[in-house]
């Protein structure tokens, strides 16, 4: 007999510790049990169909139920389910995937170091850039500059690179040698303030921090091309070129966290391509397998790889699952699908512009003070009085009210403070975008109604 929803919820509550969850609050209502997915929809154990506006957690880029990925996993498991790359050994899918990723990333890059997640990838770069500078005889160049409100993972290094104060408060973070500057959040600029000028100003905070720390102590700067979990913060177009200029000026390594932006989400294989940045290292995860199986890694630029390989000796770093053959086989099948269906181009030319158009129309809603999109990520800023630029009282948690209505209307949309965000599967059609936007409008109306009561 299959378990009933309440039996599953009881087991969940008794034994399953959820990531980023208030368990007391969860126990009161019971977890929603997700049982299956197809296309851009998921279903819960009560048979409710839900439009997944978040691609799981920014990852199910080709949508659910893709047989090609399942078949690739099964085929590889039958032949070689696992082997490591530690004993001067390698495996075919890992080599093929590294080659494929380098071709997609471009000629600035030469190697890929695999792990299983975005957090591991960001841990890897902390050790890698420090090893790089030590190999070059500059071990004092160890400080990494990141940004406030950024999310780079949950491990000690990932959470330290991240700039989430709530995460730092638990566990005495950041670890030494990681410092933060403000994010380039331009929403709320006065109408006569120039966005491009703000982009230059915000990048200038990096230079200020470099001078404060001492240029000879700074190893690298890390940032997402578009900050995702921080609330879909899309920088002005002047920001990244200026960041690049500053990194070049001081010889600092530039790292782009492409965990969300990579593999097509912004309408290019890597988001940094569109931003005018030329990172020395890129971290990735999520979209590389469309979340069907855990895989992440670091794309290593020639500048770093040549030093590590020619002079660095053994880099004492790696994971049991680095280059896992099944994960790499699934990634190859996923990249095949993305290419065959032209998803990157579709996001750039068709679905991305359509999403932008629809979100611009949502900005007319009385609750919405601003709407921003880039490729297949989008955010709405909710405000109490958009004409007076008056924010809601934080304690009201208006985002959570709206999220509750999304749940009730069969839509997954994420709340980050007062910002409501979506990152739908790249395989979503224009008609499905229309359906999602129709639901968002209903949820905004329901939120407005509740606030009036
Ligand atoms: N970096 C970014 C930009 C992310 O959004 C995330 C996860 O959401 C991570 C890193 C961490 O990835 P993972 O959860 O696979 O460890």
Automatic annotation (TrEMBL):
GO terms for cellular component: cytosol. Keywords: Aminotransferase, Pyridoxal phosphate, Transferase. The keyword Transferase applies. NCBIfam families: PRK07480.1. Its cofactor is pyridoxal 5'-phosphate. GO terms for molecular function: pyridoxal phosphate binding; transaminase activity. CDD domains: OAT_like (cd00610). This is Aspartate aminotransferase family protein. Pfam families: Aminotran_3. It comes from the Bacteria. Belongs to the class-III pyridoxal-phosphate-dependent aminotransferase family.
């Amino acid at each position: 007999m299959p378990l009933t929803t309440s039996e599953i919820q009881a087991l969940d509550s008794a034994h399953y510790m959820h990531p980023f969850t208030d368990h007391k609050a969860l126990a009161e209502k019971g977890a929603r049990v997700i049982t299956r997915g197809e296309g851009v929809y998921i279903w819960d154990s009560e048979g409710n169909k839900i439009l997944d506006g978040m691609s799981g957690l920014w990852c199910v880029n080709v949508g659910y139920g893709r047989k090609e990925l399942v078949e690739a996993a099964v085929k590889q498991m039958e032949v070689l389910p696992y082997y490591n790359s530690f004993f001067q050994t390698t495996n075919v899918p890992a080599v093929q995937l590294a080659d494929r990723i380098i071709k997609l990333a471009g000629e600035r890059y030469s190697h890929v170091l695999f792990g299983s997640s975005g957090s591991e990838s960001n841990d890897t770069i902390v050790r890698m850039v420090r090893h790089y500078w030590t190999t070059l005889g500059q071990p004092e160049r160890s400080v990494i500059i990141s940004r406030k409100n950024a999310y780079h993972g949950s491990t000690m290094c990932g959470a330290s690179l991240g700039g989430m104060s709530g995460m730092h408060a638990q566990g005495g973070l950041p670890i030494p040698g990681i410092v933060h500057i403000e994010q380039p959040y331009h929403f709320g600029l006065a109408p006569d303030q120039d966005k491009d000028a703000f982009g230059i100003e915000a990048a200038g905070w990096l230079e200020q921090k470099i001078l404060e720390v001492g240029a000879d102590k700074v190893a690298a700067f890390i940032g997402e091309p578009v900050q995702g979990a921080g609330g879909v913060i899309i920088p002005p177009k002047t920001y990244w070129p200026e960041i690049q200029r500053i990194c070049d000026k001081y010889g600092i390594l530039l790292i782009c966290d492409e965990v969300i932006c990579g593999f097509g989400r912004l309408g290019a294989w890597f988001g940094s391509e569109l931003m005018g940045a030329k990172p020395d290292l890129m971290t990735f995860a999520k979209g590389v397998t469309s979340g069907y199986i855990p895989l992440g890694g670091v794309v290593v630029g020639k500048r770093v790889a040549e030093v590590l390989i020619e002079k660095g000796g053994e880099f004492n770093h790696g994971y049991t699952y680095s280059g896992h053959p099944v994960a790499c086989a699934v990634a190859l099948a996923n990249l095949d699908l993305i290419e065959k269906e032209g998803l990157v181009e579709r996001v750039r030319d068709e679905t991305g512009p359509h999403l932008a158009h629809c979100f611009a129309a949502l900005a007319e809603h009385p609750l919405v003070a601003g709407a921003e999109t880039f490729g297949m990520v989008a955010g709405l800023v909710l405000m109490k009085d958009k004409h007076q630029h008056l924010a809601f009282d934080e304690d009201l948690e208006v985002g959570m009210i709206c999220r509750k209505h999304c749940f009730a209307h069969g839509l997954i949309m994420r709340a980050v403070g007062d910002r409501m965000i979506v990152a739908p599967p790249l395989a979503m059609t224009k008609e499905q975008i229309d359906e999602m936007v129709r639901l968002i409008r209903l949820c905004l109306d329901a939120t407005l109604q509740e606030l009036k009561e």
